[in-house]
Design brief:
The chain contains 20 helices and 17 strands. The protein is of the alpha+beta class. Helix 9 packs parallel to helix 13, helix 13 crosses helix 19 and helix 18 crosses helix 20.
Length: 491
Protein backbone atom coordinates (compact mmCIF):
# COMPACT_ATOMS: atom_id res chain seq x y z
CA UNK A 1 0.00 0.00 0.00
CA UNK A 2 2.78 2.41 0.85
CA UNK A 3 4.36 1.50 -2.46
CA UNK A 4 1.29 2.68 -4.33
CA UNK A 5 1.61 6.11 -2.77
CA UNK A 6 5.30 6.36 -3.56
CA UNK A 7 4.50 5.63 -7.20
CA UNK A 8 1.86 8.37 -7.11
CA UNK A 9 4.26 11.07 -5.97
CA UNK A 10 4.77 12.27 -9.51
CA UNK A 11 1.09 13.14 -9.71
CA UNK A 12 0.78 14.80 -6.33
CA UNK A 13 1.37 18.47 -5.69
CA UNK A 14 0.07 21.46 -3.81
CA UNK A 15 -3.24 20.81 -2.10
CA UNK A 16 -5.57 23.71 -2.40
CA UNK A 17 -9.53 23.38 -0.63
CA UNK A 18 -9.35 23.04 1.47
CA UNK A 19 -7.98 25.89 0.43
CA UNK A 20 -4.23 25.56 1.29
CA UNK A 21 -2.38 28.41 2.84
CA UNK A 22 1.27 28.13 1.95
CA UNK A 23 4.11 29.76 3.79
CA UNK A 24 7.19 31.45 2.46
CA UNK A 25 9.76 29.88 0.20
CA UNK A 26 12.33 29.84 2.97
CA UNK A 27 14.29 26.59 3.26
CA UNK A 28 13.03 24.04 5.75
CA UNK A 29 13.72 25.19 9.28
CA UNK A 30 13.09 24.02 12.82
CA UNK A 31 11.63 25.88 15.78
CA UNK A 32 11.38 24.91 19.44
CA UNK A 33 10.87 26.62 22.80
CA UNK A 34 13.22 26.89 25.71
CA UNK A 35 10.52 25.61 28.02
CA UNK A 36 9.97 22.48 25.97
CA UNK A 37 13.48 23.35 25.31
CA UNK A 38 -1.42 24.59 1.73
CA UNK A 39 -7.17 16.03 -0.87
CA UNK A 40 -6.27 13.99 -3.41
CA UNK A 41 -3.70 12.70 -5.81
CA UNK A 42 -2.72 9.08 -5.20
CA UNK A 43 -4.60 6.43 -7.14
CA UNK A 44 -7.64 4.77 -5.57
CA UNK A 45 -6.79 1.98 -3.15
CA UNK A 46 -7.26 -1.56 -4.32
CA UNK A 47 -9.60 -3.91 -2.51
CA UNK A 48 -6.70 -5.53 -0.71
CA UNK A 49 -5.30 -2.16 0.30
CA UNK A 50 -8.65 -1.04 1.66
CA UNK A 51 -8.92 -4.20 3.72
CA UNK A 52 -5.45 -3.66 5.14
CA UNK A 53 -6.25 -0.05 6.02
CA UNK A 54 -9.52 -1.01 7.68
CA UNK A 55 -7.66 -3.53 9.82
CA UNK A 56 -5.13 -0.87 10.78
CA UNK A 57 -7.94 1.53 11.62
CA UNK A 58 -9.67 -0.93 13.93
CA UNK A 59 -6.36 -1.73 15.62
CA UNK A 60 -5.62 1.88 16.46
CA UNK A 61 -9.18 3.04 17.05
CA UNK A 62 -9.15 1.88 20.64
CA UNK A 63 -6.08 3.99 21.36
CA UNK A 64 -7.55 7.12 19.80
CA UNK A 65 -11.20 6.60 20.72
CA UNK A 66 -12.53 9.81 22.27
CA UNK A 67 -9.00 10.94 23.24
CA UNK A 68 -9.72 14.34 21.72
CA UNK A 69 -13.23 14.81 23.11
CA UNK A 70 -12.27 13.68 26.62
CA UNK A 71 -9.08 15.72 26.79
CA UNK A 72 -9.25 18.70 29.18
CA UNK A 73 -6.39 21.03 28.39
CA UNK A 74 -3.99 21.58 31.27
CA UNK A 75 -5.48 18.69 33.25
CA UNK A 76 -5.49 15.61 31.04
CA UNK A 77 -1.92 14.35 30.49
CA UNK A 78 -0.65 17.32 32.55
CA UNK A 79 2.38 15.35 33.74
CA UNK A 80 3.28 13.77 30.43
CA UNK A 81 6.95 14.05 29.43
CA UNK A 82 7.66 13.88 25.73
CA UNK A 83 9.60 15.34 22.83
CA UNK A 84 7.31 15.65 19.81
CA UNK A 85 7.99 16.76 16.27
CA UNK A 86 5.50 18.66 14.12
CA UNK A 87 5.79 18.83 10.33
CA UNK A 88 4.22 21.96 8.80
CA UNK A 89 3.70 23.76 5.50
CA UNK A 90 3.88 27.14 7.25
CA UNK A 91 7.58 27.91 6.87
CA UNK A 92 6.77 31.60 7.16
CA UNK A 93 5.67 31.13 10.78
CA UNK A 94 9.14 29.87 11.64
CA UNK A 95 10.88 33.03 10.45
CA UNK A 96 11.91 35.73 12.94
CA UNK A 97 10.46 38.45 10.70
CA UNK A 98 7.01 36.87 10.38
CA UNK A 99 4.46 39.63 10.93
CA UNK A 100 1.93 37.49 12.75
CA UNK A 101 2.10 35.12 15.71
CA UNK A 102 5.04 32.76 15.24
CA UNK A 103 5.03 29.05 16.00
CA UNK A 104 7.48 29.66 18.81
CA UNK A 105 4.93 31.98 20.46
CA UNK A 106 2.21 29.35 20.29
CA UNK A 107 4.53 26.70 21.71
CA UNK A 108 5.51 28.99 24.59
CA UNK A 109 1.84 29.29 25.54
CA UNK A 110 1.35 25.54 25.18
CA UNK A 111 4.28 24.94 27.53
CA UNK A 112 2.51 26.91 30.26
CA UNK A 113 0.01 24.04 30.29
CA UNK A 114 2.44 21.25 29.42
CA UNK A 115 5.89 22.28 30.67
CA UNK A 116 7.42 18.85 30.17
CA UNK A 117 6.67 18.62 26.47
CA UNK A 118 9.23 19.76 23.93
CA UNK A 119 7.73 20.70 20.56
CA UNK A 120 9.98 20.94 17.52
CA UNK A 121 8.40 22.30 14.34
CA UNK A 122 9.95 21.59 10.97
CA UNK A 123 8.77 23.47 7.89
CA UNK A 124 8.87 22.05 4.38
CA UNK A 125 8.96 24.39 1.42
CA UNK A 126 7.51 21.96 -1.13
CA UNK A 127 5.16 20.49 1.42
CA UNK A 128 2.80 18.63 -0.91
CA UNK A 129 5.55 16.47 -2.36
CA UNK A 130 8.08 16.34 0.47
CA UNK A 131 5.48 15.44 3.09
CA UNK A 132 4.32 12.43 1.09
CA UNK A 133 7.89 11.20 0.80
CA UNK A 134 8.38 11.60 4.54
CA UNK A 135 5.03 9.95 5.31
CA UNK A 136 5.67 6.84 3.26
CA UNK A 137 9.21 6.52 4.62
CA UNK A 138 7.97 6.84 8.21
CA UNK A 139 10.33 9.75 8.87
CA UNK A 140 7.94 12.50 9.88
CA UNK A 141 7.66 12.66 13.63
CA UNK A 142 4.48 12.78 15.69
CA UNK A 143 2.20 15.39 14.11
CA UNK A 144 1.94 16.45 10.49
CA UNK A 145 -0.38 18.32 8.16
CA UNK A 146 -2.05 15.42 6.36
CA UNK A 147 -0.98 15.39 2.69
CA UNK A 148 -2.93 14.03 -0.27
CA UNK A 149 -3.49 10.37 0.59
CA UNK A 150 -6.37 8.06 -0.16
CA UNK A 151 -8.83 8.06 2.70
CA UNK A 152 -8.76 4.27 2.69
CA UNK A 153 -5.12 4.52 3.79
CA UNK A 154 -5.62 6.93 6.70
CA UNK A 155 -5.67 4.19 9.33
CA UNK A 156 -2.32 2.92 8.11
CA UNK A 157 -0.58 6.12 9.16
CA UNK A 158 -2.71 8.12 11.56
CA UNK A 159 -4.30 7.77 14.98
CA UNK A 160 -8.07 8.38 14.97
CA UNK A 161 -9.30 11.26 17.14
CA UNK A 162 -12.67 9.61 17.69
CA UNK A 163 -15.76 8.47 15.82
CA UNK A 164 -17.60 10.80 13.47
CA UNK A 165 -20.56 11.45 15.76
CA UNK A 166 -18.36 12.34 18.72
CA UNK A 167 -16.01 14.55 16.72
CA UNK A 168 -18.89 16.30 14.98
CA UNK A 169 -19.72 17.76 18.37
CA UNK A 170 -16.15 18.99 18.78
CA UNK A 171 -15.02 20.50 15.47
CA UNK A 172 -16.29 22.05 12.27
CA UNK A 173 -15.33 20.55 8.87
CA UNK A 174 -15.34 17.14 10.54
CA UNK A 175 -15.71 15.28 7.22
CA UNK A 176 -12.37 16.45 5.84
CA UNK A 177 -10.44 13.32 6.82
CA UNK A 178 -12.91 10.63 7.84
CA UNK A 179 -13.00 6.98 6.87
CA UNK A 180 -14.99 4.03 8.17
CA UNK A 181 -16.65 6.33 10.76
CA UNK A 182 -13.29 7.37 12.24
CA UNK A 183 -11.94 10.96 12.10
CA UNK A 184 -8.20 11.13 11.39
CA UNK A 185 -7.66 14.85 10.84
CA UNK A 186 -8.41 18.03 12.79
CA UNK A 187 -8.21 21.10 10.52
CA UNK A 188 -5.60 23.68 11.45
CA UNK A 189 -7.84 26.41 10.09
CA UNK A 190 -10.55 26.89 7.49
CA UNK A 191 -10.96 29.42 4.74
CA UNK A 192 -13.48 30.84 2.33
CA UNK A 193 -12.76 31.39 -1.34
CA UNK A 194 -12.74 34.99 -2.50
CA UNK A 195 -10.34 37.60 -3.87
CA UNK A 196 -7.70 39.61 -2.03
CA UNK A 197 -7.87 43.23 -3.21
CA UNK A 198 -6.42 46.64 -2.50
CA UNK A 199 -9.16 49.06 -1.48
CA UNK A 200 -7.09 52.16 -2.26
CA UNK A 201 -6.50 51.02 -5.83
CA UNK A 202 -10.20 50.37 -6.39
CA UNK A 203 -10.99 53.83 -4.99
CA UNK A 204 -8.40 55.47 -7.24
CA UNK A 205 -9.91 53.70 -10.24
CA UNK A 206 -13.33 55.03 -9.30
CA UNK A 207 -14.83 51.60 -8.64
CA UNK A 208 -17.49 52.08 -5.98
CA UNK A 209 -19.36 48.79 -6.30
CA UNK A 210 -17.58 45.47 -6.13
CA UNK A 211 -18.17 43.07 -9.06
CA UNK A 212 -20.65 40.25 -8.72
CA UNK A 213 -20.21 38.63 -12.14
CA UNK A 214 -17.22 37.53 -14.19
CA UNK A 215 -17.97 40.13 -16.87
CA UNK A 216 -18.10 42.92 -14.29
CA UNK A 217 -14.78 41.80 -12.82
CA UNK A 218 -13.06 41.80 -16.21
CA UNK A 219 -14.40 45.32 -16.84
CA UNK A 220 -13.06 46.46 -13.46
CA UNK A 221 -9.63 45.02 -14.23
CA UNK A 222 -9.56 47.03 -17.45
CA UNK A 223 -10.61 50.17 -15.56
CA UNK A 224 -7.78 49.64 -13.07
CA UNK A 225 -5.34 49.20 -15.94
CA UNK A 226 -6.54 52.40 -17.60
CA UNK A 227 -6.72 54.62 -14.51
CA UNK A 228 -3.96 53.42 -12.17
CA UNK A 229 -0.39 52.13 -12.24
CA UNK A 230 -1.31 48.96 -10.35
CA UNK A 231 -1.21 45.46 -11.84
CA UNK A 232 -4.94 44.65 -12.12
CA UNK A 233 -4.61 40.88 -11.46
CA UNK A 234 -1.39 39.30 -10.23
CA UNK A 235 -1.27 35.63 -11.20
CA UNK A 236 1.73 34.56 -9.09
CA UNK A 237 2.42 32.18 -11.97
CA UNK A 238 5.99 31.28 -11.02
CA UNK A 239 5.12 29.91 -7.58
CA UNK A 240 2.97 27.21 -9.18
CA UNK A 241 0.84 26.27 -6.18
CA UNK A 242 -0.77 29.72 -6.27
CA UNK A 243 -2.13 28.88 -9.72
CA UNK A 244 -3.69 25.72 -8.33
CA UNK A 245 -5.82 27.94 -6.07
CA UNK A 246 -8.18 28.62 -8.99
CA UNK A 247 -9.57 25.10 -8.59
CA UNK A 248 -11.02 26.06 -5.22
CA UNK A 249 -13.62 28.27 -6.89
CA UNK A 250 -15.28 25.82 -9.29
CA UNK A 251 -17.51 24.10 -6.74
CA UNK A 252 -19.49 26.01 -4.10
CA UNK A 253 -18.46 29.50 -5.23
CA UNK A 254 -19.43 28.85 -8.85
CA UNK A 255 -22.43 26.58 -8.35
CA UNK A 256 -23.87 27.17 -4.87
CA UNK A 257 -24.13 23.38 -4.57
CA UNK A 258 -22.54 21.62 -1.57
CA UNK A 259 -22.67 18.31 -3.44
CA UNK A 260 -20.93 19.53 -6.58
CA UNK A 261 -17.27 18.78 -5.90
CA UNK A 262 -17.39 15.32 -4.34
CA UNK A 263 -20.53 13.99 -6.01
CA UNK A 264 -22.01 15.91 -8.96
CA UNK A 265 -18.71 16.66 -10.70
CA UNK A 266 -17.72 12.99 -10.64
CA UNK A 267 -20.84 12.02 -12.56
CA UNK A 268 -21.18 15.04 -14.88
CA UNK A 269 -20.53 14.83 -18.59
CA UNK A 270 -18.23 17.58 -19.93
CA UNK A 271 -18.10 19.62 -16.70
CA UNK A 272 -15.86 22.28 -18.24
CA UNK A 273 -18.38 23.35 -20.89
CA UNK A 274 -20.04 26.77 -20.84
CA UNK A 275 -23.41 26.49 -19.04
CA UNK A 276 -24.44 29.82 -20.58
CA UNK A 277 -25.33 31.57 -17.33
CA UNK A 278 -21.96 32.84 -16.09
CA UNK A 279 -21.47 30.05 -13.55
CA UNK A 280 -19.53 26.79 -13.09
CA UNK A 281 -15.90 25.95 -13.82
CA UNK A 282 -15.91 27.36 -17.36
CA UNK A 283 -16.48 30.90 -16.13
CA UNK A 284 -13.99 30.63 -13.28
CA UNK A 285 -11.10 29.73 -15.56
CA UNK A 286 -12.27 32.13 -18.29
CA UNK A 287 -11.63 35.03 -15.91
CA UNK A 288 -7.96 34.01 -15.83
CA UNK A 289 -7.73 33.54 -19.59
CA UNK A 290 -9.43 36.86 -20.39
CA UNK A 291 -7.39 38.81 -17.85
CA UNK A 292 -4.15 37.55 -19.36
CA UNK A 293 -5.34 37.99 -22.96
CA UNK A 294 -6.37 41.59 -22.15
CA UNK A 295 -2.92 42.25 -20.64
CA UNK A 296 -4.41 42.93 -17.23
CA UNK A 297 -1.81 40.80 -15.44
CA UNK A 298 1.92 41.13 -14.76
CA UNK A 299 3.99 41.67 -17.92
CA UNK A 300 6.02 38.49 -17.49
CA UNK A 301 4.25 35.99 -15.24
CA UNK A 302 7.26 33.65 -15.29
CA UNK A 303 9.20 36.20 -13.20
CA UNK A 304 6.43 36.75 -10.65
CA UNK A 305 7.42 36.29 -7.02
CA UNK A 306 5.21 35.12 -4.17
CA UNK A 307 7.11 36.70 -1.29
CA UNK A 308 7.41 40.18 -2.82
CA UNK A 309 3.80 40.08 -4.01
CA UNK A 310 2.61 40.38 -0.42
CA UNK A 311 4.22 43.81 0.01
CA UNK A 312 3.06 44.86 -3.45
CA UNK A 313 -0.53 44.09 -2.52
CA UNK A 314 -0.07 45.99 0.74
CA UNK A 315 1.33 49.13 -0.91
CA UNK A 316 -1.01 49.23 -3.89
CA UNK A 317 1.22 47.95 -6.68
CA UNK A 318 -1.21 45.04 -7.12
CA UNK A 319 -4.99 45.39 -7.24
CA UNK A 320 -6.22 41.79 -6.94
CA UNK A 321 -5.05 38.22 -6.33
CA UNK A 322 -7.21 35.10 -6.45
CA UNK A 323 -6.33 33.36 -3.20
CA UNK A 324 -8.08 31.92 -0.17
CA UNK A 325 -8.84 34.07 2.86
CA UNK A 326 -5.78 32.64 4.62
CA UNK A 327 -3.66 35.03 2.52
CA UNK A 328 -5.22 38.21 3.90
CA UNK A 329 -3.32 38.25 7.19
CA UNK A 330 -0.03 37.77 5.35
CA UNK A 331 -0.78 40.65 2.99
CA UNK A 332 -1.76 42.92 5.86
CA UNK A 333 1.43 42.10 7.73
CA UNK A 334 3.66 42.76 4.71
CA UNK A 335 3.74 46.57 4.85
CA UNK A 336 2.52 49.84 6.29
CA UNK A 337 -0.97 49.79 4.78
CA UNK A 338 -2.85 46.86 6.35
CA UNK A 339 -6.17 48.70 6.23
CA UNK A 340 -5.95 48.89 2.43
CA UNK A 341 -6.04 45.10 2.11
CA UNK A 342 -9.51 43.65 1.82
CA UNK A 343 -11.27 40.45 0.83
CA UNK A 344 -14.25 40.27 -1.50
CA UNK A 345 -16.50 37.45 -2.67
CA UNK A 346 -15.60 35.74 -5.93
CA UNK A 347 -17.44 37.46 -8.81
CA UNK A 348 -19.93 34.80 -9.82
CA UNK A 349 -23.65 35.02 -9.12
CA UNK A 350 -25.93 31.98 -9.16
CA UNK A 351 -29.63 32.79 -9.59
CA UNK A 352 -29.11 36.24 -8.05
CA UNK A 353 -27.10 34.96 -5.08
CA UNK A 354 -23.36 34.86 -4.31
CA UNK A 355 -21.74 31.88 -2.63
CA UNK A 356 -18.31 31.13 -1.20
CA UNK A 357 -16.72 27.72 -0.97
CA UNK A 358 -15.61 27.14 2.59
CA UNK A 359 -13.42 24.32 3.72
CA UNK A 360 -10.58 23.12 5.84
CA UNK A 361 -6.97 23.98 5.18
CA UNK A 362 -4.34 21.36 6.02
CA UNK A 363 -5.34 19.15 8.95
CA UNK A 364 -3.33 17.89 11.92
CA UNK A 365 -2.72 14.14 11.84
CA UNK A 366 -1.09 12.16 14.67
CA UNK A 367 1.31 9.27 14.08
CA UNK A 368 -0.33 5.98 15.04
CA UNK A 369 3.11 4.43 15.55
CA UNK A 370 4.32 7.07 18.01
CA UNK A 371 4.82 6.08 21.65
CA UNK A 372 1.88 6.38 24.03
CA UNK A 373 3.46 9.42 25.70
CA UNK A 374 4.07 11.12 22.37
CA UNK A 375 0.52 10.42 21.23
CA UNK A 376 -0.81 11.98 24.42
CA UNK A 377 1.41 15.04 24.06
CA UNK A 378 0.50 15.33 20.38
CA UNK A 379 -3.20 15.10 21.14
CA UNK A 380 -2.88 17.87 23.72
CA UNK A 381 -0.94 20.04 21.26
CA UNK A 382 -3.52 19.62 18.50
CA UNK A 383 -6.39 20.45 20.83
CA UNK A 384 -4.49 23.46 22.16
CA UNK A 385 -3.91 24.77 18.64
CA UNK A 386 -7.60 24.28 17.88
CA UNK A 387 -9.28 25.56 21.03
CA UNK A 388 -6.90 27.80 22.97
CA UNK A 389 -4.20 29.22 20.73
CA UNK A 390 -6.34 31.48 18.57
CA UNK A 391 -4.36 30.25 15.56
CA UNK A 392 -7.23 30.05 13.07
CA UNK A 393 -8.58 33.47 14.06
CA UNK A 394 -5.12 35.05 14.02
CA UNK A 395 -4.55 33.76 10.50
CA UNK A 396 -7.87 35.15 9.29
CA UNK A 397 -9.43 31.70 9.18
CA UNK A 398 -12.87 30.43 10.05
CA UNK A 399 -13.22 28.75 13.46
CA UNK A 400 -12.52 25.03 13.87
CA UNK A 401 -13.69 24.41 17.43
CA UNK A 402 -17.49 24.19 17.60
CA UNK A 403 -17.51 26.38 20.70
CA UNK A 404 -15.85 29.20 18.72
CA UNK A 405 -18.14 29.09 15.69
CA UNK A 406 -19.42 32.64 16.18
CA UNK A 407 -15.94 34.22 16.21
CA UNK A 408 -15.45 35.47 12.65
CA UNK A 409 -12.45 37.65 11.74
CA UNK A 410 -12.96 41.06 10.15
CA UNK A 411 -11.74 39.52 6.90
CA UNK A 412 -15.31 38.42 6.18
CA UNK A 413 -17.00 41.82 6.53
CA UNK A 414 -18.07 41.78 2.87
CA UNK A 415 -19.46 38.24 3.14
CA UNK A 416 -22.52 39.06 5.25
CA UNK A 417 -24.87 38.46 2.31
CA UNK A 418 -22.85 35.55 0.93
CA UNK A 419 -23.80 31.95 1.65
CA UNK A 420 -20.88 29.77 2.75
CA UNK A 421 -20.83 26.36 1.08
CA UNK A 422 -19.05 23.44 2.74
CA UNK A 423 -18.46 20.51 0.40
CA UNK A 424 -20.52 17.47 1.32
CA UNK A 425 -18.57 14.20 1.53
CA UNK A 426 -18.59 11.67 -1.29
CA UNK A 427 -21.20 8.98 -1.00
CA UNK A 428 -20.23 5.67 0.55
CA UNK A 429 -18.08 3.61 -1.76
CA UNK A 430 -16.87 6.64 -3.73
CA UNK A 431 -14.59 8.21 -1.14
CA UNK A 432 -11.58 7.88 -3.46
CA UNK A 433 -13.29 8.22 -6.84
CA UNK A 434 -12.18 11.84 -7.15
CA UNK A 435 -8.58 10.70 -6.66
CA UNK A 436 -9.00 8.05 -9.34
CA UNK A 437 -10.52 10.41 -11.92
CA UNK A 438 -7.92 13.04 -11.12
CA UNK A 439 -5.10 10.57 -11.59
CA UNK A 440 -6.44 8.93 -14.74
CA UNK A 441 -7.39 12.23 -16.41
CA UNK A 442 -4.18 13.89 -15.18
CA UNK A 443 -6.23 17.04 -14.48
CA UNK A 444 -5.58 16.86 -10.74
CA UNK A 445 -8.39 19.22 -9.72
CA UNK A 446 -7.67 20.78 -6.30
CA UNK A 447 -4.56 18.61 -6.06
CA UNK A 448 -2.14 20.12 -8.55
CA UNK A 449 1.07 22.09 -8.60
CA UNK A 450 -0.64 24.64 -10.83
CA UNK A 451 0.73 23.41 -14.16
CA UNK A 452 -2.73 22.97 -15.66
CA UNK A 453 -3.80 26.52 -14.82
CA UNK A 454 -0.37 27.81 -15.80
CA UNK A 455 -1.23 26.38 -19.20
CA UNK A 456 -4.19 28.75 -19.40
CA UNK A 457 -1.83 31.67 -18.87
CA UNK A 458 0.62 30.33 -21.45
CA UNK A 459 -2.02 29.96 -24.16
CA UNK A 460 -3.69 33.29 -23.36
CA UNK A 461 -0.35 35.09 -23.63
CA UNK A 462 0.71 33.46 -26.89
CA UNK A 463 -2.77 33.35 -28.40
CA UNK A 464 -2.03 29.89 -29.82
CA UNK A 465 -5.12 28.21 -28.37
CA UNK A 466 -8.62 29.50 -27.76
CA UNK A 467 -10.13 29.13 -24.32
CA UNK A 468 -12.95 26.87 -25.54
CA UNK A 469 -10.40 24.52 -27.09
CA UNK A 470 -8.60 24.21 -23.74
CA UNK A 471 -11.87 23.38 -22.01
CA UNK A 472 -12.70 20.82 -24.70
CA UNK A 473 -9.38 19.07 -24.03
CA UNK A 474 -10.15 18.94 -20.30
CA UNK A 475 -13.63 17.58 -21.02
CA UNK A 476 -12.18 14.84 -23.19
CA UNK A 477 -9.67 13.81 -20.53
CA UNK A 478 -12.36 13.77 -17.82
CA UNK A 479 -14.81 11.81 -19.96
CA UNK A 480 -12.17 9.22 -20.83
CA UNK A 481 -11.37 8.73 -17.14
CA UNK A 482 -15.07 8.34 -16.33
CA UNK A 483 -15.49 5.77 -19.10
CA UNK A 484 -12.41 3.81 -18.09
CA UNK A 485 -13.72 3.56 -14.52
CA UNK A 486 -17.34 2.72 -15.50
CA UNK A 487 -18.65 5.88 -13.82
CA UNK A 488 -22.38 6.40 -14.22
CA UNK A 489 -23.11 9.73 -15.91
CA UNK A 490 -26.10 11.68 -14.60
CA UNK A 491 -28.43 12.92 -17.30
Amino acid sequence: MKGKQVMALGLVAAMTVAMTGCGSTTAATTASTAAGSEAAASSAASTAASTEASTAASTTAAAGDSMYANLELGTTYADVKADIKVLTNRTDMLADDYGGTKYSDYIAEFNKLYPNVTVDVEGLTDYANESLTRLTSGDWGDVMMIPAVDKADLGEYFLPYGDLTTMDGQINYVNTWVYDDQVYGVPSTATASGIVYNKAVFEKAGITELPKTADDFIKDLQTIKDKTDAIPLYTNYAAGWTMGAWDDYISGSATGDENYKNNVLLHTSNPFSDPGDGTHAYNVYKILYDAVANKCTEDDPTTSDWESSKAKMNNGEIATMVLGSWAVSQMKAAGDHPDDVGYMPFPITVDGKQYASSGADYSFGINKDASEENQQAAMAFVKFMTEKSGFSYNEGGLPIAKDLSDQLPDTYTLFKDVTMVVDAPAKEGEEDLMNTLNSDSELMISASDGKRTQGIVDHAMSGDEKFDDIMNEWNEAWTTAQTDNDVEINK
